[in-house]
From TrEMBL, chain A:
Top-level division of the source organism's lineage: Bacteria
Pfam family, one: NAD_binding_1
Record PROSITE patterns: FAD_FR
InterPro entries per record: Cyt_c3_hydrogenase_gsu, Dihydroorotate_DH_Fe-S-bd, FAD-bd_FR_type, FNR_nucleotide-bd, OxRdtase_FAD/NAD-bd, PyrK_electron_transfer, Riboflavin_synthase-like_b-brl
Cofactor note: Binds 1 [2Fe-2S] cluster per subunit.
UniProt GO molecular function: 2 iron, 2 sulfur cluster binding; flavin adenine dinucleotide binding; metal ion binding; oxidoreductase activity
FAD-binding FR-type domain mapped to chain residues: 3-99
Gene3D superfamilies for this protein: Nucleotide-binding domain of ferredoxin-NADP reductase (FNR) module, Translation factors
Protein name per its UniProtKB record: Oxidoreductase
Length: 268, 161
């Protein structure tokens, strides 16, 4: 891990939705150490600022793939980058999805909105090694069809069960309507032998985790990815603190047994 | 709610019923099959039946003037379709339309209510199951009102994961 950003060049870009772009980055010289699914990089848009962004695919040890939603100044600048543009990159940071703990289990991968981005490398890893795991269920929720990521990849993820649902359908949407937790009713898993990976806005993760626990999944087998504003990403500045955790170091991936008491208190 | 072991069974909505009650209730069920795009019931119509979905998906909708039917929720295998039959005014408060072929167990509401008053224990168990479904749908609706994918303070189109 380096503390100064390394220069990377945008070698590919793809518009995923009206406000979300996937960038593929290649190092100009030295490359960062390989990222594991769930980890994040600090991406520096020159002259604008630096933000944490998860890896959304790990195609090889050198290249980095990130999916960024434009919500403010820095993410807008990143989404506006064209092929050939430069970005500064630090990382890899944070904890990763604990796939080793999920061996032999049924898997629930549950995403809300752009939360599907950090989960995609996990899905790739599971599909590449499918015999090590039980049944894979990919459940994705989004506010509307135009915010649903990676729609073309769903057919490959849909075996044995994959489904997307939206809150607000448009006239062309023929899929499910309703919150993502309603898909759990049709997923195929044995609760006592299931590991769940959940990423989305905090309220979505809380509602989902509660539902999973209610169905008999163990809290320590529900992994969530928590976010706080980050600055140093190295455990020094304290910007990302959540109770006793510094999320740039102890997160973003945390077991729900640890996360729940921190997410349910009103103020910290 | 009963933990599922292998995805929902076709009667998942009824698995919480004691076996004896379930058998009595299922004796009243008849098989129903609908092709795709069938309107099963209309908002405001008489709620004289209900269904437990065995396969396929049903979309629940409301009529929006000028826009036609707006889908508010979809339900699938194992779900209870319809609870307006349970208490007055016994009129559907949503419309229902199949998305592709649907197979279901169909129950005549009056016959089921009759069975419930004959056997209050079964009635209580069934009402508890239906109340759980209503509770699930209410929770889901409230959660959607929270705007799950766009945390407070974020701009209109949501923020990071
Ligand atoms: C570990 C981690 C991984 C992330 N992975 C991704 C990813 O893969 N793709 C992606 O698009 N985004 C990701 N984010 C969120 C991303 O970092 C924020 O959207 C970004 O920091 C916003 O910066 P900005 O300057 O564009 O917007 P700002 O002008 O700073 O903020 C715009 C809006 O975003 C909110 N916001 C700002 N920072 C954060 C934050 N860190 N988390 C949540 N909301 C924030 C603000 O409250 C505001 O509503 C991740 C965040 C973390 C902490
Ligand atoms: S971002 Fe500085 S301590 Fe985590």
């Amino acid at each position: 891990m380096t503390l100064a950003p390394l220069p990377y060049r945008v070698v590919d870009r793809r518009d995923e939705t009206h406000d979300t772009v996937t960038l593929v980055l290649e190092p100009a010289g030295e490359a960062l150490s390989p990222f594991a699914p769930g980890q994040f990089a600090m991406l520096y848009a020159f002259g604008v600022g630096e933000v944490p962004v998860s890896v959304s695919r790990t195609p090889d040890a050198r290249r980095l793939t990130h999916t960024v939603r434009a919500v403010g100044a820095v993410t807008r600048a990143l989404c506006g980058l064209r092929t050939g543009a430069w970005v500064g990159v630090r990382g890899p940071f944070g904890t990763c999805w604990d796939l080793a703990a999920a061996r032999g289990h049924d898997l629930l991968v549950i995403a809300g909105g752009i939360g599907l981005a950090p989960l995609r490398p996990l899905i790739d890893a599971v599909l590449a090694d499918a015999r090590e795991y039980g049944r894979l269920n990919v459940l994705a929720g989004a506010r509307s069809p135009r915010e649903l990521l990676y729609q073309d990849e769903f057919p490959a993820w849909g075996r044995p069960f994959g489904a997307a649902t939206v809150d607000r359908p448009d006239d062309d949407w023929t899929g499910r309507v309703g919150v993502v937790t309603t898909l759990l009713g049709e997923a195929r898993f044995t609760p006592a032998d299931t590991t769940a990976f959940v990423c989305g806005p905090e309220v979505m993760m809380r509602v989902t985790a509660r539902d999973l626990l209610h169905r008999g999944v163990r809290p320590d087998r529900v992994q969530v990815s928590l976010e706080r504003n980050m600055r140093c990403a190295t455990g020094h500045c304290g910007h990302c603190q959540l109770g006793p955790l510094l999320l740039c170091r102890d997160g973003p991936v945390v077991g729900y047994d640890r996360a729940e008491p921190l997410l349910t208190v009103r103020e910290l | 709610m009963t933990p599922q072991t292998d995805g929902p069974t076709a009667e998942a909505a009824l698995t919480a019923l004691p076996a004896e009650h379930r058998t009595r209730l299922m004796a009243l069920a008849r098989e129903a099959a609908f092709p795709g795009a069938t309107r099963i019931f209309e908002e405001g119509g008489e709620a004289d039946r209900f269904w437990v979905i065995r396969s396929g998906t049903v979309a629940l909708d409301v009529h929006v003037p000028g826009r036609g039917q707006a889908v508010v929720e979809t339900i699938g295998r194992g779900a209870l379709l319809g609870w307006s039959w349970l208490c007055p005014p016994r009129r559907w408060h949503l419309g229902a339309e199949t998305r592709g072929p649907v197979r279901a167990w169909e129950f005549d509401a009056a016959a089921v209510r009759g069975l419930c008053s004959e056997r209050p224990e079964l009635g209580l168990a069934l009402v508890t199951v239906v109340a759980e479904t209503i509770g699930d749908r209410l929770r889901a609706t409230r959660t959607r009102l929270l705007d799950l994918y766009g945390p407070p303070g974020s701009p209109g189109n949501g923020t990071g994961p």
